[in-house]
Sequence to fold (168 residues):
Amino acid sequence: MHKLRLLIFSKLMVSCFPLKGEDRWLCTLLLKQRFRVEYCAASDALTFAPEGFYEFYKQRRRWAPSTMANILDLLMDGNTVRKNNQNISRPYIFYHLCLFISSILTPGTIFLLIMGAILTAFPAIEPWLALLLNGLPVAIFIISIFLAKEDTQVFTLFHYNRMFSCCV
Fold:
């Protein structure tokens, strides 16, 4: 039985793991194949946590798209996964649906909150100007995602972070 598990694990690692880039994808694949993933308090793990802004940003840049892809993959095959794996329930699938929707809505909500904060703090500012003040940095960063190198993106985001932190 252990040889079968090792064979399945090695095939999953070689064929699919590099596409998603993290252990969460491996867990999704195991759940789809009727395996059960459990927490083990006695296990030892080693990780290298980001120590600065640049490392943290690069980590989040990797994790955010792959997390959304994993959730979407689980949602697309939700009924099949539930039928194949008795450990997956409807509430678990519903939780992932809520997580997916909130991940999509959160950036827009934050944008509106910042715009509302600008209008509240500075009542003399017209709403279109508040929209411009809030939307221009976002637009510049989105353009930099497509046109600039990663170091320029991190540099831009670092300074936007400092700019918005000073305003608070």
